[in-house]
Write a structure and sequence with these properties.
The protein has about 260 residues and is an all-alpha fold. It has two domains: about 90 residues; about 100 residues. The protein contains eleven helices and no strands. α4 packs antiparallel against α5 and α6 runs antiparallel to α10. The longest helix is centred in the last third of the chain and has 41 residues. It is globular and about 70 Å long. It starts with a helix and ends with a helix. About 20% of the residues are buried. About 10% of the residues have low confidence.
Protein backbone atom coordinates (compact mmCIF):
# COMPACT_ATOMS: atom_id res chain seq x y z
CA UNK A 1 0.00 0.00 0.00
CA UNK A 2 2.83 2.36 0.90
CA UNK A 3 4.52 1.63 -2.42
CA UNK A 4 1.36 2.53 -4.35
CA UNK A 5 0.95 5.76 -2.38
CA UNK A 6 4.56 6.70 -3.00
CA UNK A 7 4.23 5.97 -6.71
CA UNK A 8 1.04 8.08 -6.98
CA UNK A 9 2.66 10.95 -5.07
CA UNK A 10 5.71 10.80 -7.34
CA UNK A 11 3.61 10.92 -10.50
CA UNK A 12 1.72 13.97 -9.19
CA UNK A 13 5.02 15.69 -8.45
CA UNK A 14 6.21 14.81 -11.93
CA UNK A 15 3.13 16.29 -13.62
CA UNK A 16 2.90 19.44 -11.48
CA UNK A 17 5.77 21.38 -13.12
CA UNK A 18 4.52 20.36 -16.57
CA UNK A 19 1.05 21.74 -15.81
CA UNK A 20 2.47 24.94 -14.37
CA UNK A 21 4.65 25.41 -17.45
CA UNK A 22 1.77 24.79 -19.85
CA UNK A 23 -0.54 27.25 -18.10
CA UNK A 24 2.00 30.08 -17.96
CA UNK A 25 1.42 32.45 -20.85
CA UNK A 26 3.17 35.80 -20.84
CA UNK A 27 1.63 38.95 -22.37
CA UNK A 28 4.12 38.76 -25.24
CA UNK A 29 3.15 35.15 -25.91
CA UNK A 30 -0.49 36.26 -26.02
CA UNK A 31 0.44 38.88 -28.63
CA UNK A 32 2.19 36.12 -30.55
CA UNK A 33 -1.00 34.03 -30.51
CA UNK A 34 -3.06 36.98 -31.76
CA UNK A 35 -0.65 37.54 -34.66
CA UNK A 36 -0.97 33.87 -35.57
CA UNK A 37 -4.77 34.13 -35.58
CA UNK A 38 -4.52 37.03 -38.03
CA UNK A 39 -2.29 34.97 -40.29
CA UNK A 40 -4.68 32.02 -40.23
CA UNK A 41 -7.61 34.26 -41.21
CA UNK A 42 -5.59 35.71 -44.08
CA UNK A 43 -4.76 32.21 -45.31
CA UNK A 44 -8.50 31.53 -45.54
CA UNK A 45 -9.05 34.78 -47.50
CA UNK A 46 -10.98 36.13 -44.52
CA UNK A 47 -9.32 39.52 -44.75
CA UNK A 48 -11.96 41.43 -42.77
CA UNK A 49 -11.58 39.01 -39.87
CA UNK A 50 -7.81 39.28 -40.11
CA UNK A 51 -8.10 43.06 -40.03
CA UNK A 52 -10.26 42.95 -36.89
CA UNK A 53 -7.75 40.68 -35.20
CA UNK A 54 -4.91 43.03 -36.17
CA UNK A 55 -6.80 45.93 -34.62
CA UNK A 56 -7.32 43.84 -31.49
CA UNK A 57 -3.57 43.20 -31.48
CA UNK A 58 -2.97 46.97 -31.51
CA UNK A 59 -5.16 47.40 -28.42
CA UNK A 60 -3.44 44.57 -26.55
CA UNK A 61 -0.01 45.80 -27.62
CA UNK A 62 -0.73 49.24 -26.14
CA UNK A 63 -1.78 47.55 -22.90
CA UNK A 64 1.41 45.47 -22.75
CA UNK A 65 3.67 48.44 -23.45
CA UNK A 66 1.69 50.53 -20.95
CA UNK A 67 2.37 47.91 -18.29
CA UNK A 68 6.08 48.39 -18.75
CA UNK A 69 7.10 45.55 -21.06
CA UNK A 70 10.66 46.57 -22.02
CA UNK A 71 10.50 46.57 -25.81
CA UNK A 72 13.56 48.15 -27.33
CA UNK A 73 13.19 51.12 -29.66
CA UNK A 74 14.14 48.91 -32.62
CA UNK A 75 11.51 46.33 -31.65
CA UNK A 76 8.84 49.01 -31.30
CA UNK A 77 9.74 50.44 -34.70
CA UNK A 78 9.77 47.03 -36.40
CA UNK A 79 6.45 45.96 -34.84
CA UNK A 80 4.76 49.25 -35.71
CA UNK A 81 5.86 49.23 -39.35
CA UNK A 82 5.06 45.53 -39.88
CA UNK A 83 1.66 45.93 -38.22
CA UNK A 84 0.74 48.95 -40.34
CA UNK A 85 1.72 47.12 -43.53
CA UNK A 86 -0.37 44.10 -42.53
CA UNK A 87 -3.41 46.26 -41.74
CA UNK A 88 -3.12 48.12 -45.05
CA UNK A 89 -2.77 44.82 -46.94
CA UNK A 90 -5.88 43.33 -45.34
CA UNK A 91 -7.88 46.45 -46.22
CA UNK A 92 -6.61 46.70 -49.81
CA UNK A 93 -9.05 44.78 -52.01
CA UNK A 94 -6.87 45.37 -55.08
CA UNK A 95 -3.85 43.62 -53.59
CA UNK A 96 -3.36 39.98 -54.60
CA UNK A 97 -3.58 37.16 -52.08
CA UNK A 98 0.15 36.31 -52.24
CA UNK A 99 1.20 39.89 -51.54
CA UNK A 100 -1.31 40.12 -48.69
CA UNK A 101 0.07 36.91 -47.25
CA UNK A 102 3.62 38.23 -47.47
CA UNK A 103 2.65 41.32 -45.48
CA UNK A 104 0.84 39.50 -42.69
CA UNK A 105 3.49 36.76 -42.60
CA UNK A 106 6.19 39.41 -42.17
CA UNK A 107 4.26 40.77 -39.20
CA UNK A 108 3.66 37.30 -37.75
CA UNK A 109 7.34 36.34 -37.98
CA UNK A 110 8.46 39.60 -36.38
CA UNK A 111 6.23 39.06 -33.34
CA UNK A 112 7.41 35.47 -33.04
CA UNK A 113 11.04 36.60 -33.19
CA UNK A 114 10.39 38.77 -30.12
CA UNK A 115 8.38 36.11 -28.29
CA UNK A 116 10.63 33.13 -29.06
CA UNK A 117 13.61 32.18 -26.94
CA UNK A 118 14.97 29.64 -29.42
CA UNK A 119 14.57 28.71 -33.09
CA UNK A 120 12.16 31.45 -34.24
CA UNK A 121 9.67 30.72 -37.02
CA UNK A 122 11.51 32.79 -39.62
CA UNK A 123 14.23 30.13 -39.73
CA UNK A 124 11.63 27.80 -41.32
CA UNK A 125 12.04 29.95 -44.45
CA UNK A 126 15.54 28.58 -44.97
CA UNK A 127 14.43 25.98 -47.53
CA UNK A 128 12.52 28.32 -49.89
CA UNK A 129 15.06 31.13 -49.60
CA UNK A 130 18.16 29.02 -50.18
CA UNK A 131 16.47 27.12 -53.02
CA UNK A 132 15.47 30.23 -54.94
CA UNK A 133 18.88 31.80 -54.29
CA UNK A 134 20.54 28.72 -55.75
CA UNK A 135 18.35 29.27 -58.83
CA UNK A 136 19.67 32.85 -58.98
CA UNK A 137 23.25 31.54 -59.00
CA UNK A 138 22.50 28.94 -61.65
CA UNK A 139 20.87 31.50 -63.94
CA UNK A 140 23.81 33.88 -63.46
CA UNK A 141 26.36 31.17 -64.26
CA UNK A 142 24.45 30.20 -67.39
CA UNK A 143 23.90 33.81 -68.43
CA UNK A 144 20.13 33.28 -68.51
CA UNK A 145 18.87 36.85 -68.25
CA UNK A 146 15.14 36.15 -67.80
CA UNK A 147 15.59 33.41 -65.22
CA UNK A 148 18.11 35.50 -63.32
CA UNK A 149 15.75 38.46 -62.95
CA UNK A 150 12.74 36.27 -62.14
CA UNK A 151 14.51 34.28 -59.45
CA UNK A 152 16.24 37.33 -58.01
CA UNK A 153 12.88 39.08 -57.66
CA UNK A 154 11.51 36.00 -55.89
CA UNK A 155 14.49 35.95 -53.55
CA UNK A 156 14.12 39.64 -52.74
CA UNK A 157 10.43 39.10 -51.97
CA UNK A 158 11.20 36.28 -49.53
CA UNK A 159 14.11 38.18 -48.02
CA UNK A 160 11.81 41.13 -47.40
CA UNK A 161 9.41 38.85 -45.48
CA UNK A 162 12.05 37.70 -42.97
CA UNK A 163 14.09 40.91 -42.87
CA UNK A 164 12.32 42.48 -39.83
CA UNK A 165 12.69 39.21 -37.91
CA UNK A 166 16.37 39.00 -38.79
CA UNK A 167 16.89 42.54 -37.50
CA UNK A 168 15.44 41.43 -34.17
CA UNK A 169 17.53 38.27 -33.81
CA UNK A 170 20.78 39.08 -35.63
CA UNK A 171 23.39 41.62 -34.57
CA UNK A 172 23.40 44.90 -36.57
CA UNK A 173 26.88 44.39 -38.02
CA UNK A 174 25.90 41.09 -39.64
CA UNK A 175 22.65 42.53 -40.99
CA UNK A 176 24.48 45.50 -42.50
CA UNK A 177 26.99 43.16 -44.12
CA UNK A 178 24.24 41.07 -45.72
CA UNK A 179 22.24 44.15 -46.70
CA UNK A 180 25.23 45.56 -48.55
CA UNK A 181 25.59 42.36 -50.60
CA UNK A 182 21.86 42.17 -51.36
CA UNK A 183 21.80 45.82 -52.44
CA UNK A 184 24.85 45.38 -54.68
CA UNK A 185 23.40 42.33 -56.43
CA UNK A 186 20.05 44.04 -56.94
CA UNK A 187 21.50 47.35 -58.11
CA UNK A 188 24.15 45.92 -60.43
CA UNK A 189 22.21 43.06 -62.02
CA UNK A 190 23.75 43.37 -65.52
CA UNK A 191 27.21 43.41 -63.97
CA UNK A 192 26.49 40.32 -61.88
CA UNK A 193 25.25 38.53 -64.98
CA UNK A 194 28.24 39.39 -67.16
CA UNK A 195 31.25 39.50 -64.80
CA UNK A 196 32.69 36.54 -62.94
CA UNK A 197 34.15 38.82 -60.27
CA UNK A 198 30.70 40.24 -59.50
CA UNK A 199 29.24 36.74 -59.32
CA UNK A 200 31.55 36.13 -56.39
CA UNK A 201 29.16 38.35 -54.44
CA UNK A 202 26.51 35.67 -54.95
CA UNK A 203 28.78 33.05 -53.40
CA UNK A 204 29.58 35.35 -50.48
CA UNK A 205 25.93 36.17 -49.84
CA UNK A 206 24.95 32.50 -49.99
CA UNK A 207 27.63 31.68 -47.43
CA UNK A 208 26.48 34.47 -45.09
CA UNK A 209 22.84 33.43 -45.30
CA UNK A 210 23.67 29.77 -44.69
CA UNK A 211 25.77 30.68 -41.67
CA UNK A 212 22.90 32.67 -40.17
CA UNK A 213 20.41 29.85 -40.67
CA UNK A 214 22.84 27.28 -39.27
CA UNK A 215 23.51 29.35 -36.16
CA UNK A 216 19.81 30.04 -35.57
CA UNK A 217 18.64 26.45 -36.06
CA UNK A 218 21.17 24.69 -33.86
CA UNK A 219 19.42 21.99 -31.86
CA UNK A 220 18.88 23.46 -28.43
CA UNK A 221 16.13 22.92 -25.91
CA UNK A 222 14.22 25.80 -24.41
CA UNK A 223 16.22 26.63 -21.25
CA UNK A 224 13.00 26.85 -19.23
CA UNK A 225 12.35 23.20 -19.99
CA UNK A 226 15.64 21.92 -18.60
CA UNK A 227 14.46 22.05 -14.97
CA UNK A 228 11.28 20.20 -15.90
CA UNK A 229 13.23 17.53 -17.78
CA UNK A 230 15.79 17.06 -15.01
CA UNK A 231 13.24 16.96 -12.18
CA UNK A 232 10.97 14.61 -14.12
CA UNK A 233 13.85 12.24 -14.89
CA UNK A 234 14.98 12.28 -11.26
CA UNK A 235 11.49 11.43 -10.00
CA UNK A 236 11.13 8.57 -12.48
CA UNK A 237 14.50 7.12 -11.45
CA UNK A 238 13.66 7.53 -7.76
CA UNK A 239 10.26 5.89 -8.20
CA UNK A 240 11.64 2.94 -10.15
CA UNK A 241 14.44 2.50 -7.63
CA UNK A 242 11.98 2.51 -4.73
CA UNK A 243 9.64 0.07 -6.43
CA UNK A 244 12.59 -2.18 -7.27
CA UNK A 245 13.80 -2.06 -3.67
CA UNK A 246 10.32 -2.94 -2.38
CA UNK A 247 10.13 -5.83 -4.80
CA UNK A 248 13.57 -7.02 -3.71
CA UNK A 249 12.59 -6.88 -0.02
CA UNK A 250 9.35 -8.72 -0.74
CA UNK A 251 11.14 -11.46 -2.68
CA UNK A 252 13.69 -11.80 0.11
CA UNK A 253 10.98 -12.26 2.73
CA UNK A 254 9.24 -14.88 0.59
CA UNK A 255 12.51 -16.74 0.06
CA UNK A 256 13.28 -16.77 3.80
CA UNK A 257 9.76 -17.94 4.58
CA UNK A 258 10.04 -20.84 2.10
CA UNK A 259 13.42 -21.86 3.51
CA UNK A 260 12.03 -21.76 7.06
CA UNK A 261 9.05 -23.95 6.10
CA UNK A 262 11.34 -26.48 4.45
CA UNK A 263 13.47 -26.77 7.59
CA UNK A 264 10.33 -27.39 9.67
Amino acid sequence: MKAKFFLLFSVLLMLAPLAAYAETTSPVEQLDEISDEALQMAKLHRYDDANRILKHFSEEFLTVTGNGRPFSMDELRIITVAHEEAVEAMANAEMGHNERMNKVTKFRLAIDAIASTHQPLWTEMEGPIMTVFNNVKTAANEGNNDQFHTNLNSFLSLYNVIYPSMKIDINPETIQKIDAKVSFIDQYRPQVLSEASSQEELEALESDLQTIFDEMTEDEADPSLWWVMISTGSIIILTLSYVGWRKYKGDSKKSKKVQKERKN
